[in-house]
Amino acid sequence: MNDKSKSSLEKKDQIAWEKYSEEDLEKVFSLSQRYIDFMSRCKTERECVEEFKAQAEKAGYRDLNHFISQGKRLKSGDKVYAENMGKTIALFVIGKRPLEEGMKILGAHIDSPRLDLKQNPLYEDADLALLDTHYYGGIKKYQWVTLPLALHGVIVKKDGSSINIVIGEDDNDPVFGVSDLLIHLAKDQMKKTLAEGVEGENLNILVGSIPIQDKEAKDRVKQNILKLLNEKYGIVEEDFVSAEIEVVPAGRARHYGLDNSMVMCYGQDDRVCAYTSFEAMLEIENPENTCVTLLVDKEEIGSVGATGMHSRFFENTVAEIANLLGDYSELKVRRALANSKMMSSDVSAAFDPNYPEVMEKKNCAQFGRGIVFNKYTGSRGKSESNDANPEFIAELRQIMDENNVSWQTAELGKVDQGGGGTIAYILANYGMEVIDAGIALHNMHAPWEIASKADIYEAKRAYYAFLR
Question: Which backbone phi and psi does 427 adopt, to 5 degrees?
Answer without folding.
Answer: -70, -35
